[in-house]
Amino acid sequence: xTKKDFIILFAxxxxxxxxxxxxxxxxxxxxxxxxxxxxxxxxxxxxxxxIPLTSKEIKEFVTINDIIMKIGEQHIS
Amino acid sequence: MIxxxxxxxxxxYYLPKRILTNLDLSIDFPDWDYIAFEQKIGxxxxxxxxxxxxxxxxxxYSSRLLLREVNKDTIDFVILxxxxxxxxxxxxxxxxxDRLNLKTSCGALDFNLGCSGYIYGLALAKGxxxxxxxxxxxxxxxxxxxxxxxxxDKVNRAIFGDASAATLINKxxxxxxEFVLGTDGKGSDDLIIRNSGSQSNNSQTITDYEYSxxxxxxxxxxxMNGPDIFNFSLTTIPGLVIDTARKNNxxxxxxxxxxxxxxxxxxxxxxxxxxxIPEEKFCIDLSSTGNTVSATIPIALKNxxxxxxxxxxxxxILVGFGVGLSWGATIITLN
Lengths: 77, 335
Known about the structure:
Chain A is an all-alpha fold and about 80 residues long.
């Protein structure tokens, strides 16, 4: 999966317009980045990459690229 | 073989009269998108106790509903599952015995568990029946988490509701299968009231903090680490369901109906897909009650029976999980 594909998937799951997103987008600038959508991200990582995310890891994400880095180059490049 | 007489219908529940709708909550939280919440989490309203109404009161009310059809003098044990006891001491189940005017040769005890409580109560009751300690058990779950919530805690005020359920358990016409239980106290901080019980410290200054955008709590109130509880559920529950089926010599396909603790519809839908459970066999029943902790499973069981979704011969898996962290599952068969 490319970074662009991941952003499309991320936007679809969180119901955000993907035209507004890039790897550099800060999560705290998104109105949709609420507690329920953090859970949505957990299901995305579990479902698509079999990667469990902890609340501590999610708290440390600043940009979308941080999520991509956590999921790893073997999945997203 | 251990049989439980749930039917006709020896399971009753009670909901407090006061209803808190999402529209009501949106007055306290004007920026809250409650329509999106309803769609995602599946809760439209919840029942909430008044200040002068306790979990013991609810336990009494649900028990009285049950005892309309049961000779109370046959009851020889009371098990009460609650994390909202009337006092630190005495035991709430002892007061319940007196309020219901049950015979004094009746055993009674409380146990403290939350969302896994109904499963653990069935396991305890099965043990008491197998060992012939008791023959007619009144098993009550009763919870009033709403009293533990900070008034500015948007997330948890939207999730939790109060309720009680009473079940008569004896050897007549209901089969309880094998259990799989589990505990991980490392997660005890994930759902906790820190300033409570023997850890109460009334002299310290308690400050409010925002644990999630728009949701405030303090150490005097309930705190839930939603993401880590969610993560625990995703990683533990699929294996729990598979292990429970295996221990009961059944395949997942042979289970007729799945009743999980009704935490929230978002989590339940995800777990259903992950375990490959057909939608029509999977219970989601929390729109008018919210998450009522240990009461969600018996409420869902009673409602499923009333709606003819289950009936004689149905093999139903019951799966509880949450605060502790604690989890458990069993398969019951209706006769």
